[in-house]
């Protein structure tokens, strides 16, 4: 007997617009026919010498086990704001050094956890999670309408926010 | 004001035992201090020349867009049964060729979607999802107590099951 289990997250699979972009002409995420360079890496250019986790579930598990906070970068390859931030992030030696103290994850597809989009699903968007598995919604950038967005010129603020995230919350039990 | 959003999936983060293994001595997944070889790849040795997706959400999105079925391999690095199956899978030319027709995902951490564990969270475990986003619970291996497990000697059955998965279901609308 054939058992059909429809996948529940179907409705959540919406394309993520690069809402910081001035060019609103291309909203659709296209499947390109160009093959990616093989093998594909988890860093995607955000720091090839750093250790990146594959999935959100892995990141949470490792955070809890290692007592390191999670840093999650949501981005898109065809979003110029994401690309510009990535360049600055990857070339910033202090950021790269400090990033070693985090469980790192970069994602181009949204998870189903709404805690990761407190004010929407725009990119680029950077969130921190404490090892107590609390989303640090208090660690924000400069833009009141997109609290977790950073422009390349905000890299020092991002660095300061990474330092803030490393001061772990006390677990309230 | 600090806003705390506790991550809901916390309780689901349980270690996955390699239930096919005869050696039941090491049940705990350990954080090793050994750094992985950099950069980490998405293939993890299951086929370095194939294109692998990073996350479940990405796999579903690409399946729907490309009309290819998803093949999800759950495995663990320290599970000898997973390792043995991987070796045979990676060296099997017909399997590797046929795998190009799938949206591929290999995972060492479970997702939160219960549709992916119809009879438990053991490894190795291989499931197919139709582009209509239906889990193909009807495509099974030889073991009645672990329907989606394959041993290296089952590689021909796995090949046949991949062919079966490529005959797409009609969407019932």
UniProtKB/TrEMBL annotation, chains A, B:
Give the originating organism: Anhinga rufa (African darter)
Which keywords, in A-to-Z order, does the entry hold?
Endoplasmic reticulum, Secreted, Signal
Which family does the UniProt entry place this protein in? Belongs to the AGR family.
| Recorded GO CC terms | endoplasmic reticulum; extracellular region
Keyword RNA-binding found: no
Q: Where in the cell is it found?
A: Endoplasmic reticulum; Secreted
The protein in question is named: AGR2 protein
Q: Where is the signal peptide?
A: 1-21
List the Gene3D superfamilies.
Answer: Glutaredoxin
Q: Which Pfam families has this protein been placed in?
A: Thioredoxin_7
GO terms assigned for molecular function: dystroglycan binding
